[in-house]
Amino acid sequence: MMTLEDLFGLRGRVAVVTGATGRLGQVMAEALAAAGATTYLVGRDQGRLEALADKLGPSCHAARCDVTVDEDVAALGARLHEDHGRLDVLVHNAHVGQGGSLRNAKPSDYLAAADLALGALQRLLDATRDLLEAASSDSSPSVITVASMYGVVSPKPHLYDNPEAGNPPYYGAVKAGLVQLTRYAAVELGPAGIRVNCVTPGPFPGDGGDPALLARLAQQTPMGRVGDSAEIATTVLYLASPRSSYTTGANIVVDGGWTIW
After folding, report:
1. For this UniProt entry, which residues form the secretion signal (predicted)?
2. I want to staple 35 with a disulfide (CB 3.0 to 4.6 A). Which of 10, 26, 75, 126 is the partner?
């Protein structure tokens, strides 16, 4: 009889999660570690990374790295080379949340957002491509990018108290670009046995938000509610697992149906 370990076990595998201390990043990292992967938690705040590693257990390691800095990403790659010589799962989840609108957006905002979403993925792949290729000898290495429903549809202004309270236009623009870059990478890396897929989360506002806003967001989904962070974990685990070995170039939308109407 096939077990969950047979389906989704990641023992002996190595994973990296960028943006690991964020709300969704923590859930993704926890899922990979629980499945048995040695998981490197990547972010810019060493203290928060260490606290998360302590919380998630001995298979997790704090790895301070600013993914917009070439030297930091190169050092992360060198560390993975020295520690394991392979990389099985790369989750690119780095994100800086802030509100905004066309009225206050600046060209420099678009450049910074693009560097964090698109430039950082290029840096990470440059630093780890040979590690992913090494893992393909006995596994099905997986790169998972994290986009947003606002890379598929535009925010509805009436949901927010003011124009600057919603997600800014440069956020959605680069998330849409990340979906397309995922497809490009899947085509180029496929012959090496490396899969590249995207997860597009919907409304996952977390606890402690404005109840009125949460209610308005919930009404935008056929399911009539916002998402719980844990509901992203199984999608990431599926894409990380070798059991999804014939899935590449896909954009899996986990949004409670937000984008279907």
Report:
1. none
2. 10
Long-range contacts: 121-126, Cβ < 8 Å, 24+? 121/92, 121/145, 121/178, 121/181, 121/185, 123/67, 123/68, 123/70, 123/73, 124/16, 124/18, 124/67, 124/73, 124/90, 124/92, 125/90, 125/185, 125/189, 126/73
Identify the pLDDT of residue 5. 82
| The dihedral formed by the CA atoms of 180, 233, 169 and 19, expressed in degrees to the nearest 10 | -90
Start-to-end Cα distance in the chain:
41
Whether residue 40 lies in the annotated active site: no
- Domain positions in the chain: 4-255
Which residue of the set 150, 160, 170, 171 is catalytic? 171
| In the block, residue with structure tokens 């002996």 | 12
Token pair of 240, please? 């990380």
| pLDDT < 50 stretches in the chain | none
Give me the CATH code for the 4-255 domain, please.
Answer: 3.40.50.720
Six token digits for residue 238: 């599926």
